[in-house]
């Protein structure tokens, strides 16, 4: 059980969470592959200086979701990936993709799920007037932001907050809990009991 956990990270944009995973230097983890559906994602620039393989699979070049997802699966397969981390990946994955990777795909969401799923969650939280929001790392199931919750961090909302200031504090917490969740996975410490993800000591 000395084998490293081999991680594939799926991105679409800035890649600050990917950067946090790299910076965390998780001992038993290898970031084997980064896939971006967006050829212009800044995440791709970020990793140029590291020895990490990256592949662009542009969804616009596929006429339907299945073909796009099949190409991701085909690309991932030779890397013998143990875990897939969605890090700002802006495509919804269908059950066709998700089912075979049950409890092996994680996502980070910028709200305390089940509040504010979907997009613009920081704006939604601010507009709703909640006093606390945060972020959630969860396993991906066949719904949108509905899978079992692994870790959450709480961020208070202050009267003077704008979307930008709040987003920055949410991001800071994301960059702590996403690497932590991946580390726990790589240590074999996540146990699933119905909807609950229990963390072994
Ligand atoms: C994060 O806010 C994450 O919660 C959401 O997309 C954003 C990705 O940011 N799913 P980055 O690309 O990791 O900087």
Descriptive report:
This protein has one domain: 3-Layer(aba) Sandwich (Rossmann fold), CATH 3.40.50.170. It has 6 helices and 9 strands; from the N terminus they run βαβαβαβαβαββαββ. It has helices at 16-23, 42-46, 65-76, 95-98, 121-128, 163-186; strands at 5-11, 29-36, 53-56, 83-87, 105-109, 132-139, 149-156, 190-193, 196-199. It is globular, with a radius of gyration of 16 Å. The chain starts with a strand and ends with a strand. 5-O-phosphono-beta-D-ribofuranosylamine is lined by residues 13-17, 87-88, 108-110, 171, 174.
Amount of helix: 25-40%
Can you tell me the CATH topology? Rossmann fold
Strand content: 25-35%
Full CATH superfamily name: Formyl transferase, N-terminal domain
Work out the radius of gyration: 16 Å
């Amino acid at each position: 059980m000395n084998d490293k956990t081999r991680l594939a990270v799926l991105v679409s944009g800035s890649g600050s969470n990917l950067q946090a995973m790299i910076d965390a230097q998780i001992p038993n983890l290898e970031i084997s592959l980064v896939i971006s559906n967006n050829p212009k994602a800044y995440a791709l620039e970020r990793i140029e200086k590291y020895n990490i393989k990256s592949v662009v699979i542009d969804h616009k070049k596929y006429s339907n979701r299945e073909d796009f997802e099949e190409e991701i699966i085909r690309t991932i397969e030779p890397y013998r990936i143990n875990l897939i981390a969605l890090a700002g990946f802006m495509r919804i994955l269908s059950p066709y993709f998700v089912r075979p990777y049950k409890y092996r795909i994680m996502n980070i969401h910028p709200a305390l799920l089940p509040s504010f799923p979907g997009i613009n969650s920081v704006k939604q939280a601010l507009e709703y007037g909640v006093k606390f929001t945060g972020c959630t790392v969860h396993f991906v199931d066949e719904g949108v932001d509905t899978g079992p919750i692994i870790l959450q961090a709480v961020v208070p909302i202050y009267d003077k907050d704008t979307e930008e200031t709040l987003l920055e504090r949410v991001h800071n917490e994301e960059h702590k809990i996403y690497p932590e969740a991946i580390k726990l996975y790589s240590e074999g410490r996540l146990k699933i009991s119905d909807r609950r993800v229990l963390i072994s000591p």
